[in-house]
Structures are given as C-alpha cells and as structure tokens.
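tokens incoming
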C-alpha cells in the first residue's frame, strides 16, 4: 500500500513526499487505516519498524482537519493539543525531528519538545506562544502540569511510545497520574506502542483506553533475522586489544559500541582516541546540549565511532549503521535486541559483534533463549585477524581520564573496574581492613598518674574477675555453668565466707564504746557481703533489740494515729525519728549506740555500687551508717 492511497490531507501528503515516504511498511499498512478513524490502538512492533510515522501521521491528520474547520467556521475550536511521551531525551528529540519533517507542508504547525537537563526559559516561551504537539519525557511534562502551564484536560490525542521501556525505568505511576488528570477516555484518542505487551501494559490499556484494537505486527525477536551476529569468547584483559583487531578487519564506516557502565564507556573512548579513532562517548551524565551535539555529529558522518550505555539504545536512529559492538554483554536480555536493533533498520542488513568475558558471560544463556537461536561463536586467529598494536596498553583508568572529567564522586557508581585495581589513586578497601580492629586505650597527658586498681579493672573490662583474699584460684565461668544449684551454693560459700567469715549477712552494729573497723583500700577491701577480719558477730541481745526496733517501726508506719499521738507528746515513732534525723547521714544516730564522729563504712567499689540497688525501705545498716 502507498501513502497516497490513504485518506490523508493534501498538506500532509506534501510532508510525506518531502520525507521520501512512498510505500507503507507492514505496521503502517495495518494500523493507519484504523488509527485515522480516531479509534484507540495498542501496537506491538519491533524497533525500527516505522511505528513512529504511524502516530505522527495520525496526529497531523487530525490537526489538519481542525485547521480546516477553523478556517471554515466563525468560532474557533477549543485550544487542544496532542501529547507524546517518550522514555528518553534522545528519543523525544528524534520524534520531534520526524514530526517537523512530516509537517513540512502544514504551515503554522507548532511543535515543542520538553525534557530535563536544560533550562526552563525556552520551553516556557514555547508554552506561552502555544503548542499543537507536545513531545517530552514524563518528569518535565509533570513539572509543567504542577506549575499550571499544561492542562491535561485539553489533550485530544495521547501517545505512549516505548511503553515497556517507560515502565522498566519506573514511570508506570507517572503514566497513571497523567491518565487520571485527563478528560474521559471517550473524549480522547490513545495510542500505545511497545516492543512487548506485558501484563502491566495490557492492564494500563484495559483501564485507561477506550476499547483499543490490538496489533501484533512483528515480534521483537524477529529483529535478529537480518543481522549477522558473531560472538567471541575473550578474557577481560585482552578484550580491548581483540576489539581493535576486529575493527581493523571490518573497517566500518560507522560503529556503535555499547558498554554496561558509564566509567567503562569513558575508558573505551579514551583508548580508541589514543589509537587514532574518532570516538566520543554518550551517557546520561552529559549535559543535554553536549548529548545533542554528539548525536548530530554521528548522524552527519563527522563522528565515526560512538561509545554509549543502554540509555542510548532506544533513543538513537542512525541511518545505515554498519556495525554494533557489544563490548559488554548486556545484563538484561531484552537490551541485547535493542542494541543490535540500531543496525538493520527499515529492512536493511547489518552486523553485530559481541565480546563475551568472564564478567558478563552469565547473561548469554538468557539472551539466546530470548532470541531463540544460538549466536555463532568465532575464534580469533592470527592468520585471519592480524595483530594490532595497542597504544593504550598498560595505562590505568586514571592515566586515561582526568579527575575533572570523570571525578571522584562518579568513580564508584557502576565502576566494575575499581574492584580489580585501585584506579584513580583511591586506596583499596583491603588496605584499610588489613589489621583487625582492636580497642586502643586513650593516653592522657599525665601518663605517670596510675589509676586505682579497682578503677582500672572497671574501665578495661565491664565484669572483672573476682579476686579473693585467700589467694585461692576461682573456677572459670564454663566450670561454674556445669554445676547444679547445690554445687554452686557450696562453691560460693567456700569462696565468699573464707577466713572465718560467717554465713549471715553483714551487720556492722558497733557498741557505743567500740570503734568501727578501719577503712580498707584497694585489693585489701573485703568483697561484697564479707566482713572485715577481726569483726565479731552481733550478740543475741543486739539481735533481739534490732528485732524489737523493726516491729516498732512497722507498728508506727501502719498506725497513723499512733504516729500522731507520739508526735503530739513530743516523741516521734522510732521509724520517723530515724528517717527525719538530719544527722543520720553522718553516723550520729542516737538510738543506735554509735558515738558521734564515728568513721563511715568503707565505700563500695564502682561495680558493686552499680549492681547493688538499695530498696525504698532502708535496712538496719543503712540507717546506722547513713546509706
């Protein structure tokens, strides 16, 4: 079928003729008769099949009809526009160029391309002047919608190009938001194009499209039928030298080389330039003006070799591209088809060379399963492929690339080379972790001051081993764990009650005529619960006196009336008297029989103070010594 056989406007046919389009391709022949009627379509077609012309001709035909109605009618129609969404900036620019080419015969057609990476001033001016066809990426389009400069309710035709790629890049929620802000699906025409019609693509079509007609024209994997494919198994060290030999053999007019990382793309470009190849790299970090400049140089033939990441796999349309080199095997099997699809476009033939190294060869099986064929394996022979001297041999990444061009902040992002060698002067991680981490004590300025033994042990170890006055070695923690309860009790009694100590809790009550035991220091201090040497056990009379005092305290606390009566009589209960006595903290309790000025009890060590918590009701020793 020819384009002049379709019901197209005369001005549109002039643009088609200006683009040298005569015969319709398969996807154009099947879809255009339906889309020109205004129905929604959902098309699955391979890359480079001519699907871009399908939605552009459909939109331009609708625009030509509106212009005709505007001229014949006194009232101008509503100010509507068509919206085309593309996954990458390169693809958006490519669609804009095709739209301007096809609208050559339609004077006054306003076409605008909107994407990130550039300023807003020029794009703001286009929106202010009015746009008939809006082409852009999801991020910038939604920005203008939020600013109130784009009204999605005025969209009369909505096109989603490379839908599967958009969803893989995480734009699925953005596309859903655009649909929700538009007019009802019955009042607009929606066209969706994708290399694969996945479940997400179909769900989106069923929810937001008006009974779309589905077309499966050409499956994506059929792209490889017109492409000569070759696979070379190489090591990572010899990969670049073998590519130089293959380029010397092929002598291509132009070549597109794909890498998996941005750093690898920069490195390969620099090595090619040292070997007298006119090469440039293309990746997402480049400013948009420079990206467009590189693409235009490649299309015009000024640039022969372009090294790119997968960001350019679907955004480039280079006519008569002879060779595609997969310097790295893609980790996603679909990207392999998109890469080699840059050649053999529009039914032409092409060639692709894949270098399989030990780093990315694991993706080969899934690729061959997807394209349903085995890629022919060839081997490098010195007789058929001559040796080529590599001028960049022995040079590291930082020797090739200055830091200001690919700085330190970008070295670790996707750079697989850094795991093999510390390029760029960066210290390898192994050097930082060569020695095990140990606790380094803090050295103070006065190193001659020695800490107390108890304090030093508490700082170094949270639970220091117990030291006994008898000098007998204690059992280890593992040995104590193996004991039962009775054995542990016997062991603790023997260790803590050694040297004549009694098994009862320590009660340091001293007669009024006796002095308290001397205060001990350091290692000579008694363990917790152990009495100092030479201290006598309390007599039965004192025990009885203490018991009667406890009972009196209990009666006084339980009987508020008795406490009030005692206070009015000028005598507070025993418990209140001891609690309110301001001299209790200084060892001056009159009822205890302790003399004034009696020395306080030995201070507890820090670890004992931490573990021993005083109850709210003070015991006898606490009341006597003010603790």
């Amino acid at each position: 079928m020819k384009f002049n056989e379709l019901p197209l406007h005369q001005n549109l046919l002039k643009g088609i003729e200006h683009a040298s389009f005569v015969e319709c391709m398969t996807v154009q022949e099947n879809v255009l008769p339906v889309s020109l009627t205004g129905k929604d379509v959902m098309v699955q077609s391979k890359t480079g099949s001519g699907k871009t012309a399908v939605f552009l001709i459909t939109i331009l035909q609708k625009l030509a009809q509106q212009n005709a109605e505007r001229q014949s009618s006194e009232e101008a129609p509503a100010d509507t526009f068509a919206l085309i969404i593309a996954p990458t900036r390169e693809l958006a620019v490519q669609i804009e160029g095709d739209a301007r080419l096809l609208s050559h015969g339609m004077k006054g057609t306003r076409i605008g391309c909107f994407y990130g990476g550039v300023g807003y001033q020029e794009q703001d001016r286009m929106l202010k002047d009015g746009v008939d066809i809006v082409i852009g990426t999801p991020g910038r389009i939604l920005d203008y919608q939020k600013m109130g400069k784009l009204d999605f309710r005025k969209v009369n035709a909505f096109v989603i190009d490379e839908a599967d790629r958009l969803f893989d890049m995480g734009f699925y929620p953005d596309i859903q938001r655009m649909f929700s802000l538009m007019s009802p699906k019955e009042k607009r025409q929606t066209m969706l194009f994708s290399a694969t019609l996945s479940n997400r693509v179909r769900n989106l079509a069923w929810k937001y499209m008006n009974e779309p007609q589905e077309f499966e024209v050409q499956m994506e994997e059929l792209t490889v039928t017109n492409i000569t494919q070759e696979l070379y198994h190489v090591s990572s060290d010899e990969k670049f030298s073998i590519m130089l030999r293959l380029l010397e053999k092929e002598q291509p007019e132009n070549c597109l080389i794909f890498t998996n990382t941005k750093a690898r793309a920069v490195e390969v470009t620099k090595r090619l330039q040292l070997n007298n190849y006119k090469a440039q790299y293309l990746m997402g970090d480049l400013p948009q003006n420079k990206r467009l400049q590189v693409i235009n140089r490649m299309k015009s033939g000024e640039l022969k070799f372009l090294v790119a990441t997968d960001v350019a796999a679907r955004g480039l349309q280079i006519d008569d591209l002879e060779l595609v080199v997969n310097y790295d095997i893609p980790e996603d099997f679909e990207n392999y088809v998109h890469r080699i699809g840059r050649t053999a476009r529009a039914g032409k033939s092409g060639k692709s060379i894949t270098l399989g190294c030990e780093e990315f060869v694991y993706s080969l099986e899934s690729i061959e399963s997807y394209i349903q064929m085995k890629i022919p394996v060839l081997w490098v022979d010195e007789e058929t492929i001559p040796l080529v001297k590599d001028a960049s041999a022995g040079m590291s990444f930082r020797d090739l690339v200055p830091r200001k061009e690919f700085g330190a902040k970008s070295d670790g992002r996707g750079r697989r080379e850094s795991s093999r060698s510390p390029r760029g002067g960066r210290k390898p991680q192994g050097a930082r972790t060569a020695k095990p981490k140990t606790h380094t004590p803090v050295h103070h300025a006065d190193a001659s001051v020695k800490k107390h033994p108890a304090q030093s042990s508490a700082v170094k170890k949270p639970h220091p081993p117990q030291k006994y006055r008898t000098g007998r070695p204690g059992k280890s923690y593992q040995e104590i764990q193996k004991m039962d309860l009775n054995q542990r009790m016997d062991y603790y009694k023997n260790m803590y009650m050694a040297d004549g100590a009694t098994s009862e809790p320590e009660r340091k009550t001293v007669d009024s005529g006796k002095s308290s035991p001397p205060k001990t220091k350091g290692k000579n201090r008694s363990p917790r619960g152990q009495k100092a040497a030479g201290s006598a056990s309390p007599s039965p009379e004192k025990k009885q006196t203490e018991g009667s005092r406890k009972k009196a305290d209990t009666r006084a606390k339980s009987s508020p009336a008795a406490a009030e009566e005692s206070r009015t009589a000028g005598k507070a209960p025993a418990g209140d008297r001891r609690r309110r006595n301001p001299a209790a903290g200084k060892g001056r309790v009159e009822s205890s029989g302790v003399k004034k000025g009696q020395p306080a009890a030995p201070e507890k060590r820090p670890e004992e103070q931490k573990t021993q918590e005083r109850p709210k009701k003070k015991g006898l020793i606490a009341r006597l010594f003010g603790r």
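note: The CA atoms of residues 451 and 457 lie 9 Å apart.
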